[in-house]
Amino acid sequence: MIASNPNTVEYLSWSGEPTVLYNTGIENILWGLNYGIVWMSVCAIGPWQSSRYMMAKDEHTIIKSAPFAAIGVFILEFVVGLVAVMVNISNYKMVDSSRVMIWAAMNLLPTMLGVILLTGVLGAGISSATTFLSLIGASFANDVFYSHGKRSINIGRIAMIIVSGGVLMLALLNPPSIFWIMFLGGAMAASAWMPVAFGSILSKRLTKTGAFCGMLFGFLGCFVLKIYSSLSGKSLPVYLDPSVVGIGCNIVAMVIGSSLTQVTKEEKEEREKLFILPESEKNQDEVKKTLKWTKRSCGVGVVVFGVMMVFWIIPYLRGLN
Question: Which terminal Cβ of the chain has fewer Cβ within 10 Å, N or C?
């Protein structure tokens, strides 16, 4: 029905509907790739940041959980996208895109399924909020104020209250921008942390100063550009998306900061410790299980390809014909 209708055929096409985000299909594709890179970065750096205050049982547990996380992200993005298309067809006059799932739960689904959907949406929101707030509190307490003990807890709580209040005010004053507020959070996390997270492992030349400069200018590049586009009302070209600029600023500042300083003996030793396998992780039975899971994770790509073919590409091509 969607593919055979000339008014809706572009909703599920490779290019998307022009003028909603950008005027051409290529620009929409580039934005989609950028969106994927941002959330890939968030998923990649999430264990690094969250493990500072919420420890996993061991490294094997983290690796085994990765395929489930990847499948979960795919299912969420795929289903949410299809739901948005269906709701657009059912209620094309809807202006507030942030109410799509709420409207669908209340008007398209049976009462019980609608309650389950809204409960899931609320639960997911609370879960994500508590995780990010805990991360913000820990970062302020440990990295900004270098506090310990009771003072660290109090600083973390104050930081979480301030950030919660700011986000609440933004959501209340401009509800249709909830999605963009969420995406801005992911973009700033990717801009500030992703290059440094990979560089601190892969590079022997990255220094403390370089890492700090990278995180600082990555955050500022993303945040300042987003504020500018929001206040001026101007739509930036896809290649000047705040997350792209922020990641670029991070890399440049990281390289410059590291080139102006030297890796200290302590920094070198701390990096080398990352590659030392603890004795607790050398259980051969657990190693074999983990290796099996890494092989199975390759199947995630096959599963994604199959689902997209069966539930999107083939039905869409049939509708065109």
Answer: C
Distance of CA 42 to the CA centre of its chain: 4
Nearest-CA neighbor of 140 among 120, 162, 121, 112? 162
Q: Coil, strand, or helix at residue 108? A: coil
pLDDT in tens, 261-295: 998 888 888 888 888 877 777 788 888 888 888 88
Could you give the CA distance from residue 212 to residue 193 in angstroms, rounded to a whole number?
A: 10
Separation between Cα atoms, residue 280 and residue 288, nearest integer Å: 14
Secondary structure of 170-235 in HEC code, one letter for each residue: HHHHCHHHHHHHHHHHHHHHHHHHHHHHHHHHHCCCCCHHHHHHHHHHHHHHHHHHHHHHHHHCCC
Residues 235, 19 contacting (CB under 8 angstroms): no
Kindly state the percentage of the chain with pLDDT values over 90: 11
Pair 74, 226: CB distance under 8 Å: no
Query: Coil, strand, or helix at residue 161?
Result: helix
One DSSP character per residue, 280-304 reads GG--HHHHHHHHHHHHHHHHHHHHH
Contacts of 103 (CB under 8 A, 6+ apart): 87, 91, 94
Report how far residue 271's alpha carbon sits from residue 110's, in angstroms, rounded to the nearest whole number. 55
pTM value > 0.85: no
pLDDT in tens, 174-204: 655 666 666 777 788 888 888 998 898 888 8
